[in-house]
Write a structure and sequence with these properties.
The chain contains 22 helices and twelve strands. By secondary structure, the chain is α/β, with parallel strands linked by helices. The model has no long low-confidence stretch (mean pLDDT 93). Bound molecules: arginine. Residues 118, 121, 123, 158, 160, 313, 331, 333 line the site of arginine. It catalyses: tRNA(Arg) + L-arginine + ATP = L-arginyl-tRNA(Arg) + AMP + diphosphate.
C-alpha cells in the first residue's frame, strides 16, 4: 500500500497545498471495499478553503488525472476514494513476490541503526522453565523482524549465572553431591536442580545453611579459585543443555554474556555513580533514592558488600552502550519486572547516561497451562524440555493419522510441534496472559501454527503436482473477488512487517498469516487450479498460489517457525 499512498500524495500535493507527509498521514484504508482501497478525507481542508468537505472532495476528483495504477477515482461524501487497478496489482505483486523470494517484505528501513535485544536470559541454577519460553520466542521473533528490516541486531542472552543461588548450589553440592554422579548423570541439569531443591528443604530445618550460602557467594564474588572452578563447571553443564534446547527451537544469540561477566566491572560502575553524586548510604547499604520519581530506592550494594541483579543490569547497560553504540536496546522480560526496569533506566538517566532514553522494557504476560494439561515435576516447575517433547509426540500422532506415508515424519513432527508452541504464544497480544491448551494449539483447522504450515504445505504439494508449462499467465482473468482479495492481502506483507515493530508485536504477523491462509483456502475452494482448462489462466492461478506460499514462508520465518513443504 505504501506505493499507492505515495502516488496519491504526489497527486494531491499540488492540488491541496498540503505537504506529502501531511497527506500520507491523512490517507485511510477503508474497511468496506465499496469505499475503495484508499481514501483521502477532506475535513481538514474545510477551514482554510471555506467550503464543505463534500464539495472539496468533488472538486478534487474533477481535477485529478487518474494515474494508471488506479481503476477509478471517485468521491463519496467528504472523501476522495481510490480504487486500485487489480489487474495491474495482480501482475506486479505476483511477479515481485516470486522474483524477490525469501527477501520479499524485507527493507532497508533500519540501515545504519543498531538494536540490541536482551532476551531469553534464563537462570541457570534452575532448569529452563516454561516462564522463559515467552521471552525466548518473542525476543527471537523481534530479532528476526529487525534483521529483515535492515537493522544491525545484537541478540544477548543475559544468563542468570550469578547471585546467592550459586552459593546454594555449591553448598549443596559439597554436602550431598559428588562429582562422579554429576559426570555420569544423563540429565546433569536436573541433578544440580535436585541439589538446589534439597538445599531449600534442609535450610528449613537448619537456617545456618542460608548464611553459609551467602558467604559462599561472597567468596565467589571475591574470586575464590576453588569455588569459581565449581561455578564454571556448573555453568558449562547448564549452557550445554540450554544450547541443545535453543537448537531445537532454532534460536541464535550473538552473545552469552551473563550476569557474572559484569562482576569485575562493578567497582568501576559504582564509582562512577558515586562520583555523579546520586548515591547515598542507607543502613550500611549503597542506594539511589528515587523518591522524586515516585519509585522505590534502588539497592546497589548490600551491607555485606554483595551486589545485586539491578547493579549488574546498570553495569551491563553501560558496557553494552560503549560496545555497540546502540540506537535502541530492548529488554524482553516479563511484566512482573516493570518496576525493576523503571528503576534501572531512571538511575542511568540521572547519572547522565542519555542512552537510557533508548532503552525499553518489552513486557509480556504470564504463560499458563490449561488445568491438568501438563504434569509438573518436582518443585512444581514445568520443564520446557518436557513441553517440547510432548508437543512433538502429539504432533507425530496427528501426522501418523493424516499422512501415514510422509517420508521424514520425525523432522516434520519437530517442525510442526515446535511451530505450534511458538505460534500459540505469538498469536496473542504479548501483554496478555497466555493459557496454553494442547488441543487448541495443535488444531490443524484452528487459528494455529499447524494450520498456517499446513496451508503452505498444501500449496507446495499443489505446485509439485502441476506440470510445468511454458505458457503466458493470464493475470487479467484472475478477477474473481477471491483472487482480488488474496492478492491485496499478499501485497500488504511488507507493510505488515513494518507495522509489527511499531509496538514490538510479532502478533501482527501471526494474525496476518492466519488471514492469508484463510484467504488462500477460500480462493482455492472457489477457483479451480489444476482443473482449470485454460492453460493461461491455470498458469496465472498457479503463480498466485506460489506467491502465497512464499509470503507464508517468509512470515513464518519471521516468527521463528519453519515451513515444511510436506506434512
Ligand atoms: N534472569 C532474569 C530472570 O529470569 C531475566 C534477565 C532479563 N534481562 C536483564 N537484563 N535483566 O528473571
Amino acid at each position: 500500500m505504501d506505493k499507492y499512498k505515495k502516488i496519491i500524495s504526489e497527486i494531491l500535493e499540488g492540488l491541496t497545498g498540503l505537504s506529502r507527509q501531511e497527506i500520507l498521514d491523512l490517507i485511510e484504508q477503508p474497511d468496506n471495499p465499496e469505499y475503495g482501497d484508499l481514501a483521502f478525507p477532506t475535513f481538514s481542508l474545510a477551514k482554510t478553503l471555506r467550503k464543505a468537505p463534500a464539495i472539496i472532495a468533488q472538486e478534487l476528483v474533477e481535477k485529478i488525472q487518474k494515474p494508471s495504477d488506479f481503476s477509478k477515482v471517485v468521491n463519496l461524501g467528504p472523501y476522495v476514494n481510490f480504487f486500485i487497478d487489480t489487474t495491474k496489482l495482480m501482475e506486479e505483486t505476483i511477479k515481485e513476490i516470486i522474483e524477490q523470494g525469501d527477501e520479499f517484505g524485507s527493507s532497508n528501513l533500519g540501515e545504519g541503526k543498531t538494536v540490541v535485544i536482551d532476551f531469553s536470559s534464563p537462570n541457570i541454577a534452575k532448569p529452563f522453565g516454561i516462564g522463559h519460553l515467552r521471552s525466548t520466542v518473542i525476543g527471537n521473533s523481534l530479532y528476526k523482524i529487525h534483521k529483515f528490516l535492515g537493522f544491525n541486531v545484537v541478540g544477548i542472552n543475559h544468563i542468570g549465572d550469578w547471585g546467592t543461588q550459586f552459593g546454594k548450589v555449591i553448598v549443596a553440592f559439597d554436602k550431598w553431591g559428588d562429582l562422579e554422579t554429576l559426570n555420569n548423570s544423563e540429565d546433569p541439569v536436573k541433578y544440580l536442580y535436585d541439589l538446589y531443591v534439597k538445599f531449600h528443604e534442609e535450610a528449613e530445618k537448619d537456617p545456618a545453611l542460608e548464611d553459609l550460602a551467602r558467604d559462599t557467594f561472597k567468596d565467589l564474588e571475591n574470586g575464590d579459585e576453588e569455588k569459581m572452578a565449581k561455578w564454571q563447571m556448573f555453568r558449562d553443564i547448564s549452557l550445554k543443555e540450554l544450547k541443545r534446547i535453543y537448537d531445537i527451537l532454532g534460536v541464535h544469540f550473538d552473545s552469552y554474556k551473563g550476569e557474572q561477566f559484569y562482576n569485575d566491572l562493578i567497582p568501576e560502575t559504582l564509582e562512577t555513580l558515586i562520583n555523579k553524586g546520586i548515591t547515598e548510604i542507607s543502613e550500611g547499604a549503597l542506594i539511589v533514592n528515587l523518591d522524586k520519581f515516585d519509585l522505590p530506592p534502588i539497592l546497589l550494594r548490600k551491607k555485606d558488600g554483595a551486589t545485586l541483579y539491578a547493579t549488574r543490569d546498570i553495569c551491563a547497560a553501560i558496557y553494552r552502550y560503549n560496545k555497540y553504540k546502540f540506537d535502541k536496546m530492548l529488554y524482553v522480560v516479563g511484566a512482573e519486572q516493570s518496576l525493576h526496569f523503571k528503576q534501572v533506566f531512571k538511575t542511568l538517566a540521572i547519572a547522565g547516561f542519555d542512552f537510557s532514553e533508548n532503552c525499553e522494557h518489552i513486557p509480556f504476560g504470564l504463560f499458563r497451562f490449561q488445568e491438568g494439561k501438563m504434569s509438573t515435576r518436582k518443585g512444581n516447575l514445568i520443564f520446557l524440555d518436557d513441553v517440547i517433547k510432548k508437543a512433538i509426540s502429539l504432533t507425530k500422532e496427528i501426522i501418523l493419522e493424516k499422512n501415514p506415508n510422509l517420508q521424514n515424519k520425525d523432522e516434520v513432527s519437530k517442525q510442526v510441534g515446535v511451530g505450534a508452541i511458538i505460534f500459540g504464544d505469538l498469536y496473542n497480544d504479548r501483554i496478555k496472559n497466555v493459557i496454553f491448551d494442547w488441543d487448541k494449539i495443535l488444531d490443524f483447522n484452528g487459528e494455529t501454527g499447524p494450520y498456517v504450515q499446513y496451508s503452505h504445505a498444501r500449496i507446495c504439494s499443489l505446485l509439485r503436482k502441476s506440470v510445468a508449462e511454458e505458457v503466458k499467465p493470464d493475470f487479467a482473468a484472475l478477477n474473481s473477488e477471491y483472487e482480488d482479495s488474496l492478492v491485496k492481502k499478499l501485497s500488504q506483507f511488507p507493510d505488515v512487517v513494518k507495522n509489527s515493530i511499531q509496538g514490538y508485536k510479532p502478533s501482527v504477523i501471526a494474525r496476518y498469516l492466519i488471514s492469508v491462509a484463510k484467504e488462500f483456502n477460500r480462493y482455492y475452494h472457489y477457483c479451480p487450479i489444476n482443473k482449470e482448462e485454460n492453460p493461461n489462466i491455470r498458469q496465472g492461478r498457479l503463480m498466485l498460489a506460489k506467491a502465497t506460499a512464499q509470503v507464508i514462508k517468509n512470515g513464518l520465518n519471521l516468527l521463528g517457525i519453519e515451513a515444511p513443504e510436506e506434512m
